[in-house]
Specification:
Radius of gyration of chain B: 13 Å
Helix content of chain B: under 10%
Helix content of chain A: under 10%
Number of helices of chain B: 0
Order of helices and strands of chain B: EEEEEEEEEEE
Oligomer: heterodimer
Largest sheet of chain A: 7 strands, mixed
Number of helices of chain A: 0
Largest interface: A-B, 21 and 25 residues
Chain lengths: ~120, ~110
């Protein structure tokens, strides 16, 4: 049974870079049947898709983030990571990692989510 | 970017009753639509993809319909665990986008 787990600091200072890692267990991140996404949810608000990475390293990002997001993959550790630069209070959110099925693009497995607060 | 609009924002329903949730896309997305359930403090859970295909393990009381720009999620007989927020998502084009959510609450 595939599981995803986010990890990283829960508090980041304004203007700094937010860094999170998602560890995949119970399955291989190198499967060509899936791609791997980051999604965030500000407190009390809706979901915003940040971007995805395929195990080959190909990526796509939400243009709304204005090139602040970088997603990378480490197949040897079965992990993928998110870096979000120049954060402000508006970036405070619960961050989820998720697996999307290449055959239909819906996210069928999610991590539990991790709250990241941007504050000095 | 495709804008997804869900209605109503809040839906009061009595246990055992039927709930009907709507999702509209700003342009045609064919059947590239998913529905997710999110309970408080939890991650979203995939219910429906392809507008009408149930995800693994999802109870039969959840059904989806629609294509193009108009979609519906129906819960035939609400159980206590179904009171939650429901999100629709289009995956027809990038960036993937979500609706604002519908909160199904106890009437």
């Amino acid at each position: 049974q595939v599981q995803l787990q986010e990890s990283g600091p829960g508090l980041v200072k304004p203007s700094q870079t937010l860094s999170l890692t998602c560890t995949v267990s119970g399955g291989s991140i190198s499967s060509g049947d899936y791609y791997w996404s980051w999604i965030r949810q500000p407190p009390g608000k809706g979901l915003e898709w940040i971007g995805y990475i395929f195990y080959t390293g190909s990526t796509y990002y939400n243009p709304s983030l204005k090139s602040r997001a970088t997603i990378s993959v480490d197949t040897s550790r079965n992990q993928f990571s998110l870096k979000l630069s120049s954060v402000t209070a508006a970036d405070t959110a619960v961050f989820f990692c998720a697996r999307a099925n290449s055959s239909h693009d819906a996210s069928d497995i999610w991590g539990q989510g991790t709250l990241v607060t941007v504050s000095s | 970017e495709i804008v997804m609009t869900q209605s109503p924002a809040t839906l009061p329903v009595s246990p055992g009753e039927r709930a009907t949730l709507s999702c509209r896309a700003s342009q045609s997305i064919r059947d590239s639509l998913a529905w997710y359930q999110q309970r408080p403090g939890r991650a979203p859970r995939l219910l429906i993809y392809g507008a009408s295909t149930g995800a693994t393990g999802v109870p039969a009381r959840f059904s989806g319909s629609g294509s193009g720009t108009e979609f519906t999620l129906t819960i035939s007989s609400l159980q206590s665990e179904d009171f939650a927020i429901y999100h629709c998502q289009q995956y027809y084009s990038w960036p993937l986008t979500f609706g604002g959510g519908t909160k199904v609450e106890i009437k």
